[in-house]
Design brief:
- The chain is of the alpha/beta class.
- It has a single domain, classed as Vaccinia Virus protein VP39 (Rossmann fold, 3-Layer(aba) Sandwich), CATH 3.40.50.150.
- 34% of the residues lie in helices and 22% in strands.
- The chain has eleven helices and eight strands.
- Strands 3-2-1-4-5-7-6-8 form an eight-stranded mixed β-sheet, sandwiched between helices.
- Helix 4 runs parallel beside helix 5, helix 7 packs across helix 9 and helix 8 crosses helix 11.
- The longest helix has 12 residues.
- The radius of gyration is 19 Å and the shape is globular.
Length: 294
């Protein structure tokens, strides 16, 4: 965790890049929708009847709309640090009588009451947070006993091809440092969650050229927010050198972009339950996940 905090995304830069991406996000968020669908499918394994759901890092609201359809009696609170994303989500609301509400706030300081939420859902948001421990502690605070946190994030193999291509050109940070699955599981235990289950898998998105990958990253706000990043403009020559370096990864005529997808869920224990240690974290590949009753 110390290594992550030293290289954590700069919060202001993250908000700025995602604000710029609000209008283009939905067109380019193919990977995000695929991961969202897989994450939501895991709720089929949970016996839940939530009254209040918090969608943490809700973006333009795709997951919230799916949660609303799945749990029609629940109120859903869409939280994001980026006002422009929430504005887009609200504009896409399909029903005037929707039970969705909107909150622009930091994930580590939501302002919600203690033990007020039944289910927290978060798709590909945790890795954009400067202090994941603080975010998980806040989730622990606002969830009711026997409440559920279910989330996805990305692991250290994410964009490994882009990282390698940049590394052949200079020593500056260009791709973020992402937490290992086991570190995330340990963070859940530190926060006081029970029965964490962690899964990981690699998804590969392919492109005809590097420009397509970079366009998707910009359009979804997934740009370099490392505090030590070079903040000046990159010249055309460097862009050509990067494209040439990336060519070594071309396979079957296409350029791959690897994403290590980490999914997890954990429960709030009953009051008075014994705290758990890291030995209680279960890890599985996606296809081995079994049923866990609430």
């Amino acid at each position: 965790m110390t290594d992550f905090l030293a290289q954590a995304p700069e919060a202001r830069a993250v908000r700025r890049s995602h604000a710029r991406a609000a209008e283009t996000y939905d067109t380019h968020a193919v990977l995000q929708r695929e991961v969202a669908a897989r994450l939501l499918a895991r709720l089929d394994l949970m016996q839940l009847a939530p009254q209040l759901i918090l969608d943490l890092g809700a973006g333009t609201g795709d997951s919230a709309r799916a949660l609303e359809a799945r749990y029609p009696k629940a109120s859903i609170l869409l939280l994001d640090t980026v006002h422009e994303m929430l504005t887009k989500a609200r504009a896409r609301r399909r029903r005037w009588f929707s039970r969705c509400r909107y909150l622009c706030a930091d994930a580590a300081s939501t302002g919600l009451k203690d033990q007020s939420v039944d289910l927290i859902h978060s798709n590909l948001a945790l890795h954009w947070c400067a202090d994941p421990d603080a975010v998980l502690a806040e989730c622990r605070r606002v969830l009711k006993p026997r409440g559920l946190l279910i989330f996805s994030t990305v692991g250290p193999s994410t964009l490994q091809e882009l990282r390698a291509a940049w590394a052949s050109l200079d020593d500056s940070p260009h791709v973020h440092f992402f937490m290992d699955m086991h570190d995330v599981g340990d963070a859940l235990i530190r926060a006081g969650f029970a029965s964490p289950v962690m899964e990981r898998d690699n998804l590969c998105v392919t492109y005809r050229d590097l420009a397509g990958l970079l366009a998707d990253l910009r359009a979804t706000g997934a740009v370099n927010s490392h505090p030590g990043r070079h903040k000046g403009l990159r010249g055309a020559g460097q862009q050509r050198a990067l494209a040439a370096a990336y060519e070594s990864h071309r396979r079957n005529g296409l350029l791959p972009a690897t994403y290590e997808i980490v999914m997890g869920h954990a429960w709030i224990p009953e009051q008075g339950a014994r705290p758990q240690d890291g030995s209680t974290v279960a890890t599985f590949p996606f296809h081995k996940l079994g049923v866990r009753k609430a």
